[in-house]
Amino acid sequence: MAKTRLLRPLAVAAAAAVLTATGAAHAVAADQDGNGAPVPDTAGVLAALRTTTAAGAPGAFAVITDHGDDENLRSLTVGKADLDGTPMNSSWRFRVGSNSKMFAAVLVMQLAEQGRIDLDRPLREYLPAGTLPDSWTMTGRQVMEHRAGIYDHTNDLLEQAGEETTAAFEARIRTKVYSPTDLVAMSVRHGQQYTPGSRYSYSNTDFVLMGLAVEHLTGRPYADVLNERIIEPLGLTRTSFVVPDQRIEGPHVTGYLTNDDRSKPLLDSTEQTASWLWAAGGVISSAEDLDRFLTALVAGSAGGLVSDASLQQMTAALPTPSAKISYGLGLRRISLSCGDVYGHGGIVQGFQTQSFTTRDGHRTVVVFANASNNGSVTQGLMGALEPAFCGAKPAAAKPSNGVSPRTAFTPAAGQGEELPVVEDTRI
Description:
This protein has 427 residues and is α+β, with helices and mostly antiparallel strands. The chain has a single domain, classed as 3-Layer(aba) Sandwich (Beta-lactamase), CATH 3.40.710. It contains 12 helices and 13 strands. It has helices at residues 42-54, 100-113, 140-144, 154-158, 165-173, 180-188, 204-218, 222-234, 287-298, 308-315, 375-382, 385-390, and strands at residues 59-66, 72-79, 94-95, 256-257, 267-268, 284-285, 318-319, 325-327, 332-336, 339-348, 351-358, 363-369, 371-372. An 8-stranded antiparallel sheet has the order 2-1-12-11-10-9-8-7, with helices on both faces. The chain has a 3-stranded mixed sheet with strand order 5-4-13. A two-stranded antiparallel sheet has the order 3-6. The protein is globular, with a radius of gyration of 21 Å.
């Protein structure tokens, strides 16, 4: 595969302006930056991050990167990277959870471009014999869209009646090593859930299957294919797939699993095999690497990952039951007041991330918190996306003649409303 032509200078981080919660955010007079995009509302982003830590996360950060004529990086951090008191660091590594699905989707699209998989034929034709029943006709496209009717195997590992989340984690997640075929077998035992293509239902098993297809079609371990086709060409020096190794090498944020019983302390869940998610959630990365990956992806052919035609298919998102949220081929689309953004969210015990970019790749936003099993933490992170991408809302008009104040504008669709917490929050 040809080397990727990166769209951002390697030194952008060194030249970036850094904002932290302990430093004053610089006031910006203009409503748009030098590239015509709304100036990020850093005060609004910091407020969302503080909401996230108030809800129970030790720390949180947002990294807002603008590309184009005026390269700019804004890093905003609050709280701690660990319970020993280390300040949060937005350059450190962490588990990205379901953001891993974007990487798997790129590998599949590359194989489709080479004619090695037809996304509109039954996926079982591209898997080892017996992986799926012969009667299952769902296509690769339906699987990547979460519209295949495949049961999510993680339900069997997490939803044990009467058990606390931390107990389930210690018993079945932290040190257990599952093979991808084990995970698929858990799912298949539940049978097909609905007619493929008839509705949307998020399933981690879908991307375990896509990872198996990558291995079967290339004859190579998934980690090797990921390294050769994405990590090395893009120079993602802080990204790795080391399943089932438990450690995160190098400087990294510590992740904490919240007890179902909130009176009990947070559990350090940093070390885990991640084999229970494999290709669906096992990637380790950093905010800078996620930005580089997304920027190359939405550049299409110019970015070196997928062709323009493949990118068009990936971004052709279909509605989901969650308002403002659509899903394409391994990419989620969120409709904000200033337009649509593309990327994914990811939650794996102790870590949660939302990574999104504009369709033109001009602005990428990565928001992160080091706690999971807490919907309020997730909602706080989701609340950072609107001010990061769309800037500050217009101020309310001053009252006159004793009349109650009224807003000086009519909000665009969705502005000022909370984005919904989406389905990968359950892990």
